Amino acid sequence: MTDTYARTTTDAWRNWAGNVTARPARTVSPASVDELAEALRRASEDGLKVKPVGTGHSFTATAATDGLLIRPDLLTGIREIDRTAMTVTVEAGTPLKRLNTALAREGLSLTNMGDIMDQTVAGATSTGTHGTGRDSASISAQIRALELVTADGTVLTCSATENPDVFAVARIGLGALGVITAITFAVEPVFLLTAREEPMAFDRVTADFDQLVAENEHFEFYWFPHTGNCNTKRNNRSAGPAAPPGKVSGWIEDEFLSNGIFQAACSLGRAVPATIPSIAKLSSRALSARTYTDIPYKVFTSPRRVRFVEMEYALPREAAVEALREVRAMVERSPLRISFPVEVRTAPADDIALSTASGRDSAYIAVHLYRGTPYQAYFTAVERIMTAHDGRPHWGKVNTRDAAYLAGVYPRFGEFAAVRDRLDPDRLFTNDYLRRVLGD
């Protein structure tokens, strides 16, 4: 057996979108929980703040630090599968893709997931990553236990029965409570999903939104700005048989059109913004209706190779259609040229203190712009609409909200703050972003 050991570097760090950079004093990849605890002790002695980082898929500076950056590269793999409890315990640095494929080999699956799977399990859950679902909620809501190393080096296990006050807030902890080293997820026997994708007019999908959500286990749609066109996706459990997309047709839809051609269109739009409305009309008609059936992660997730910057807000579900119509009206009367579609998803209420769906059925409206395109004017205008509807910003996506605003839209904000005060009174795990959104 080859011994593993912590690796330490001083390399600069940049997130996936390239809009956040940091130059930590030290970067360490601990190979064990003990090595992580020692790294935290040394950082505290040296007066360095500490931030854990995943794969950098957040668009905010959640993980940025000029102190010690903790990379979980060596904390990967499945610790245990418990078929009696129907759980899997996985090391924090394990990419979701690796977890999904490993579970599938074991005949198991998560119940719901987001639309990409490049993130680590700790990074995805700490920022509240979610997919869409009528009854099934975010990845964090599927957590049954957490292992957390706190500021003083204590290894804390929490669940609904063990340290339940920590469990209530740590499933979406923003890296503010400690460093997650392992997560136990609920799993179920692998199942099949049938995906039905089809174009639909904006006026129809907004008029029938409540019905479409009610009739489908997982419903989402994309509206193409400067057009009246949407693309819808309905995922529902199926008795089978499996009927995945054909290799050629799947490549044309998921790679050639959704990544290759779209990349070229975005590049042209960034260089010549006046072409964007025409490109949008073509793009909105390029993807055809299709139906396919496969195991969950192959239906929920898609390759995302075109890089972008994103802002997303969770609204009370009943406010979603009105807010989206306001976004459309704002775009139509403005000089803005928007090359990326607007994504709409849903989630049921959950019981996590800082979940964007905490205590209320929610709908998500996400806006994107191609990387390198000035986004401030568009995002500011959209954010004004979202906050007028008591919107909660996704913790890992661009926003300008502060602790005063967030305390007003999260009834359990004070509960999170109290646990943070107890676990990290000296703010070892803070940074500028957390000072803004959580306060100090």
UniProtKB/TrEMBL annotation:
Checking Pfam families in the record gives: ALO (PF04030), FAD_binding_4 (PF01565)
Q: Does the keyword Oxidoreductase apply?
A: yes
Q: Does the keyword Metal-binding apply?
A: no
GO biological process entries: L-ascorbic acid biosynthetic process
One GO term describing the cellular component: membrane
What molecular function terms (GO) are annotated for this protein?
D-arabinono-1,4-lactone oxidase activity; FAD binding; L-gulono-1,4-lactone dehydrogenase activity
Pathway note = Cofactor biosynthesis; L-ascorbate biosynthesis
UniProt superkingdom: Bacteria
What are the protein's UniProt keywords? Answer: Ascorbate biosynthesis, Oxidoreductase
Q: In what residue span(s) does the FAD-binding PCMH-type domain sit?
A: 20-190
Family membership, please give it. Answer: Belongs to the oxygen-dependent FAD-linked oxidoreductase family.
NCBIfam families per record: bact_FAD_ox
The name on file for this protein is: FAD-linked oxidoreductase
Give the organism the record lists: Streptomyces brevispora
The taxonomic lineage of its organism, from the top, reads: Bacteria, Bacillati, Actinomycetota, Actinomycetes, Kitasatosporales
